[in-house]
């Protein structure tokens, strides 16, 4: 297994992008790479789309960095409600046919579509976030979410005053199980007396688990009624509702994927966002774009973990440093994970 090294951190603010790529009605021929050497990175968003202040926006920051550095045309395409694998396949095919390279599907939901499309466009490099797809021209960009979540759990255990904390998962799928497992283990390893209330918003993405702030808010309110005073959400756009509920109740929220304390759309809640479990999706997206630009496209599975700084925990909120023992406990846990003395569960 190959792993990219030297992840490039980006700090580009999320802005409006006017570019749009239209879906083509025709069928591409086998191996048609579409030409268009003036075009570069294109990303197809997961549910929730741009503006989730989390997962998709992190991918967009990577796109913006590549666009700025390489000076080429980029595209970012929104998902549609109730779409099928065939819809995703058409979207990816359209981008490849237009000449974009690389083309990245943001989210495990693109797995089936990408496997089919990559075989049709062997001269285009494809990337997929949070899933492994086999293909000679596919880079699978996966993360150790459980490790970042463990650090979030350590923080929650140090911050709670009620000895009750919460976890809200967007959809009940293996990917989100990794967040839950790491968080619960981090809490229990730090203070076995702390109770963790965990729940999922929906069983499938189609039910809106990653795209419904109202569902997230209701779930968090229910956990707060049960005395949870720290709530961690791994729920995409739905997490905004969790953060809103936490702010209203004057308890702590823990963000996910992006440093949500710094997100402009969440500014009015920022004082309640204690920390965020980070995934360097922007760095991974940029790294793949750079590899194509350098003529050495990445392929295979690339795992971004705590050791490579591919995941981590933010400390942007000054109040983080005021939680007794939190910073020291997080640093100790990080060292243990990196040296292998702490094994973090994935289920």
Protein architecture, described:
By secondary structure, the protein is α/β, with parallel strands linked by helices. It folds into two domains: 39-143 and 281-304, Response regulator (Rossmann fold), CATH 3.40.50; 145-278 and 317-339, Response regulator (Rossmann fold), CATH 3.40.50.2300. 35% of the residues lie in helices and 19% in strands. The chain contains nine helices and twelve strands. The chain has helices spanning 55-70, 85-97, 111-120, 145-159, 174-190, 213-225, 239-249, 281-293, 326-339; strands spanning 39-44, 73-77, 103-106, 126-129, 138-143, 164-171, 195-202, 230-234, 252-257, 273-279, 300-304, 311-313. It has a six-stranded parallel β-sheet with strand order 2-1-3-4-5-11, with helices on both faces. Strand 3, helix 3 (111-120) and strand 4 (126-129) form a beta-alpha-beta unit. Helix 1 (55-70) runs parallel beside helix 8 (281-293). It is globular and about 55 Å long.
